[in-house]
Amino acid sequence: MTRLLLLLLLALATAASASATTLTGTITDAATGDPLIGATVRIAGTSIGDAADIDGVYSIPRVPEGAQTIIVSYIGYRTQEIERVIPADGTLRLDIALEVDSIEGEEVVITAQAEGQVAAINQQLNSNQIVSVVSAARLQELPDANAAESVGRLPGISIQRDAGEGENVVIRGLSPRYNNVTVNGVKLPSTDFDTRATDLSIISSEMLAGVEVYKSITPDQDADAIGGSVNFTLRGAPEGLQTQALVQNGYNGLSGSFGQYKGNASVSNRFLGGRLGAFLQGNVERVDRSSERITADYLNQATSDDETDPTLLVDEVALRDRAEDRDRYGLSLMLDYKLPFGTVQLTNFVNRLDRAYVSRDNTYNPTESGVTYDIREARLQTDVLSSALAGEFNLGTLATLDLTANWASSEIDTPYDSRARFRENSAFDSENIVRTQGPQVIPSYAIADIDNTFFERLDFSQQVGRERDLGLQGNLRVPFHLGSWLTGYVKSGAKYRSKARENDNTQRYTFLFFGGENGGLDELRELFPDAVSSTGGQVGLRSFLDDENSGSEILGGDFVVSRTPILGLARQTQEAFRDSMRQAVWGDFRDFTADEAVTAGYVMTELNLGPRVMLLPGVRYEHTNTYYNAFFGRVPNTLTDREDDQVVLRDTTSEQSYGNWFPMVQLRVRPTDWFDVRLAYTETQARPDFQDTSPQVRISDTSQLITKGTPGLRPSQSQNLDAYVSFYSSRIGLFSVGGFYKRIEGVIYDADVRLQDEETAAANGFPNLVGYRVLEPRNLDTPTTVRGIEVDWQANLLWLPGPLSGATLNANVSRIFSSTEVERIQATTEVGPPPFYLPIVTFSTVRQQVRLLDQPDWVANVALGYDRGPFSGRVSVLYQEGNLTGYGSNDRTLSFFDTYVRWDAQASLRVLPSLRLYAQFNNLTDRPDRALQSTGLFLSEKEAYGRSVNVGLRFRP
């Protein structure tokens, strides 16, 4: 720290005596006039230079006076060397237009997809960090369905989907909880009830100027990014009036519906002589995310002494036919004002996701000899708002100061989730049913006696999660020139972030199969006086049967949703009973409020040792304070579903405070103009999810189960090593090979502890509850390691002969390894003493080495694009090897997501100079999602969502 302060003083002294001339201008494509983001400008024979920003603007302060050679380069374009005489002070403006590199003397016009690829390559090469980029040109030319899909095409990244739609990203095998998501550097609030994850599908691709995934961070970035940090950059206002519009209609192959649509419009301009810029964008979209699904649960019949026996009996099979629409609305407004000494920018955006679905479910439970028929209707609404005021100011020629104040909020609201359930008891012939042949045969063994099927219950729930973030940060950057071969800057800053989080759950229910004070059978008969009774005297399903939707084939005809209640009658019943339904207090156990305050500071310096070596060391400190309020409650073993007023809840609170240092260093060496080596050592962390550190405790005497959070849970901390080598030229594009290694301390896992004796019970804080199980999150006391290799090749094939010159290639493959431990309860059975020889079961905790959840071994992406004249097209394939989704109690209860292969295609045709017709073809092979259980590969879930096609028009003058 002392050396850095001395260097800062030395830099100030040097800067005071240096040339006061600033070289500035814009770098554009000579043919199109588009800015070339990431193009480099440097003074020959020195380490002095800069890279063009998102508007193509560069600025180099304190350029040595006198005759200088200025070198301007951009991969894929001809390098220019410009001679200029630099005055002693003032500003020298030099605008540069670069031409596409020619192949063997032939003039080449860069194609649309190649332009986006070249922009990404240059942004990656000119970053001091290890970063993967999706450029603005690539997003706008052939956009993906949403921002998550765009990120998922980058190396080392896999996608978590819901009904076929990309939602969250896993970076280098690390779950969303280990990653950071920002917009223009400002952290986005969570859109999940329990975790810190942000749903990326809520972000429209049309509002973005690019996507950056930082795999090594610097001290001026938030440290909570063990996997990486995803930053979305928003579009601003270039010179002149710019307009754009898009209209789209779509078809969903599963539902056979043309009900999908999308509209987007934007306008931007600069006013007051170019000083004031404004960009306004809005979008509306509806997508059909209907799906068909089977899920299966199993009973483990193997003995504890026979770990190799894969025997599993089907316990339950659930069939679901869901019709779902998702509506998205977005509005963004960016304003910027250029001052004589800097720029002020105001960024605002709001996004809403509305989900509405109707689900028809048949559930077969041979263990309990029951079948249930549900009709469920729900609406979920997610809102994200963000506003940031940022200013960047030049303090003369000595330094730059940037200040940011931001406010962001999210709300996840389920205003209603209602379910009507009908039940058939004694639904199986227990003597003839075979439960070892998989879930597909179980429905065929059901008796399916409609006259023995009755209206059992109604359920209604509401849930709201709110999060509010406030932030203030400032950064001071002081550039220095210590001779022509040592340049750089010293940068220091501070940040304060305040987060408030709350969850509120309400659950209500009523039973309709008996009368009296606590049942609703009498009221149900009054509501439907002509309803046919079941054989047991309840209100039967026959009067509520939906003939139109019953007998629907799903999953290619392999299964049938045999019986479905009428939605309208279910709604009528819910409305009639809403005021009389009892509140289930067990829903309140998950309520909590949380306040979190993070204070951070850092210092770092960039040292350019000549034009080919860059060293960036620094350190960051973050201090965190949290306060929680939740509930403690005990459910006595005398409790029945109709006597929940026996449960007594009391408030419980917790506080926590901790601080951590994060040293970091990055090194970049360019031995030649076509070879790049990058090394990085960083330390990062992942804070616990909200529910993990909540002080909530729920004790159930009936099931002898204690479910609790863990106040005082430590954040996971990681030491990260990265090494990358890159080869690049106009001919080969960018070819990179990289390796990474992470050692993570304090990984958070879900512990399952059996309080088998008084000593164990006392050690876990429940001395009077011997025999109970405790489920709680804990920090692992042994390190977890993650390592891997990433290979990436991005190339435009302009050098190929004739029509083939319009091809582009993007291909990457990643191999990931991880090793961690899990605790499992192992049961051992011994024969008891005579004369009865009753079995004695003892439990012990064992640890086993496993890989991390959500980590695929292999991830690969290949996209082949082609541009020719007015046509532009791309075919892409994603390969994502299976990953664990749950550890279970042993290998027979392991659960994992099956290997996933998906083909997509996009195409566009310019029909007028400013009008393009485009089409998107998603999931060409109609690939379903599959989940399996145990080493025996038993099917636990299969979900199909079909192919989809979108066709639209894009207007861009």
In short:
This protein has 957 residues and is mainly beta.
**Could you tell me the strand content as a percent range?**
over 45%
- Major beta-sheet overview: 22 strands, antiparallel, barrel
Query: Which class do the helix and strand fractions yield?
Result: mainly beta
- How much helix is in the residues? under 10%
Q: Which runs of at least 5 residues are low in confidence (pLDDT < 50)?
A: 4-9, 11-18, 639-644
User: Kindly state the mean pLDDT as a whole number?
Assistant: 87
How many strands? 50
The radius of gyration computed from the alpha-carbon positions, rounded to a whole number of angstroms, is: 31 Å
* Number of continuous helical runs: 8
- Large-scale geometry: globular
Termini separation (Å)?
A: 53 Å
Can you tell me about this structure?
- There is one protein chain.
- This protein is mainly beta and 957 residues long.
- The protein starts with a helix and ends with a strand.
- The chain has a 22-stranded antiparallel barrel.
Record keyword descriptors for this entry:
957 residues, 22-stranded antiparallel beta barrel, 7% helix, five-stranded mixed sheet, mainly beta
